[in-house]
Amino acid sequence: MLEGFVLLACAERAICVAFVGALLGLDNIAIGQFMLAQPAVGAVLVGYMVGEPLLGVWAALTFQLLWLGQIPVGAYVPPSAPITAIAAVGLAGPSAAPLPARAVAAAFLAIPVGVLAGKLDFWIKSRNVGILHRSENDLLDGRPLALGGAVIKGVANFFLKDFFLLLVAIFVGSALLTLALRHITPGWYPGLELAFVISPAVGIGAALKVYWKARNLAAFGVGAVVAAAVAFIFSFLI
Amino acid sequence: MKRTRQQGDPPLPRRTRAEMIIRSLFIQATNNFERMLSLGFLFALWPVVKRLYRTPEKRREVVIRHLSFFNTQPYFANCILGVVAHVELDRGENLNVEVANIKNAMMGALGALGDDLFWTGLMPAAALLALVFYGALPGYALVGAISALVVYNVFHFWARIKLFNVGLRLGRRVTSYLKMLRLPRFAVSVKVVASFLLGAFTVAVMWRAIQTGFGGFGAAAAVGGAVLASVVVQSLGVKPGLCWYLVAAAATVVGVLTA
To answer: Does the N-terminal or the C-terminal CB of chain A have fewer CB atoms within 10 Å?
Structure first.
């Protein structure tokens, strides 16, 4: 069983990450789309907030490109990359295991959270039909304030959806992961570290599939050669 | 009395334009499956409605006119917002038909162009700029995040503000301006830049792998292999999330066996 102080630490982390994550998540659909919610920014900010910037960076590297080619067509709803990355940072809770083990274990749970977040976006958009009809009736009855009220309700729906999803997922998930990581022997750590290092490769593969055209592949090759040359020179300088 | 706007008239005061642009940030807040962005569009247009129509009857007509189905890319919606405001200010005949025609003609084309330019072009390119930074210098992550935000939002706000103002000034003639910008060609160039950054990012991930304790270049080769395997597996129709589980499980087993 988990000690009281561990549960308290899980709860504290869940509340902080869920609140900031839900605020950042508004940027994904409801307000602005300034890129604040994208893993490359949002996960890094949340990582700094919980005092683990490297964890935030890893979540960004792993999840930013993962669903790049997934477009919502018909009934298919792609998982939410911003919520997945933020959940991964939150889930890698107060365990004493090394960072790679915690991060990979957290990602195992964060992906279903991201899938669920996508499904809930679908549900919110269905619920917003009710807001549309009520506001339409109010506006036709000569109550223009209904327009502002509808927008506030819409924003609140998106915020509450992300807040409660992250709160429950991070609290329950980080407690379970802390418990599970106690039963993983150090012999597993090298394997989890390799998974930690290789994780971004799946996103790179997904992005390559999206950009699969001769001119893009040529640019990819040039970018790789230039970066390798810079790394080579850099390794001699230090 | 009907008043037709004269050449050189300021289309709207700066304050009203600013209010409309700020309101347009919320265009997706009430996104719904029945009429998509229509309510958000009306919310953004409301400052013009307030100025032009004082009686409840007239405003009722505007509500009916603008609450029909509307869906496009949210930044490029500002261009249509500007054009529609221009038409409303002109108060021509058959406003209902004219507004519907403009929206129907522009929303599909601008939606496709905006999705291509921003969602699969500029957004990944800016994110990759940050990712290259993280891969090379993970200790300075905030600098990478801020760089990505600045680069992306320069284009983002250009689209929101400039296209709104041009749409407001030119009305229907905005299409000539949009053609002049050659945005589809720009989207292609942005994807080339994103691919260049993706190549650099791949090397940065390999570089990080070399610095771990997995036999130097063997780890870099493992990253390269994982990239190729991901492309192949995803081409076979496996979803990226499931692909991540497969790669992570395989890497864990290999790591345990080779340690």
So the answer is: C
Question: What's the pLDDT at A234?
Answer: 84
Q: Predicted ipTM? A: 0.94
Range of the domain at B35: 14-192
Q: Are residues B223 and B116 in the same domain?
A: no
The pLDDT tens digits of the residues spanning B158-177 come to: 999 999 999 999 999 999 99
CA distance B90 to chain A (A): 23
B178-195: pLDDT as tens digits: 999 999 999 999 999 999
Clarify whether residues B187 and B217 are in a common domain: no
| Cβ neighbours around B222 below 10 Å, total | 23
Q: Does A99 touch chain B (CB under 8 A)?
A: no
Q: Is A104 in the same domain as A114?
A: yes
Residues B115 and B240 reside in one and the same domain = no
Restricting to A residues 180-209, those with a Cβ less than 8 Å away from any Cβ of B are 187-188, 190-195, 197-209
Q: Are residues B121 and B237 in the same domain?
A: no
Of B193, B231, B255, nearest to A193 by CB-CB distance is: B255
Shared-domain flag, residues B132 and B27: yes
Q: Dump pLDDT digits (tens) for B210-236.
A: 887 676 788 889 999 999 999 999 999
Contacts of A98 in chain B (CB under 8 A): none
Half-sphere CA count of A216, side-chain side, radius 13 A: 17
Among residues A182, A198, A214, the one where a domain terminates is A198
Q: Which two tokens stand for residue B170?
A: 């030119």
Check if the beta carbon of residue A216 is closer than 8 Å to that of residue B195: yes
Residue B197's pLDDT band, with cuts at 50, 70 and 90, is very high
Q: Rounded to two decimals, what is the model's pTM?
A: 0.93
Which backbone phi and psi does B36 adopt, to 5 degrees? 50, -110
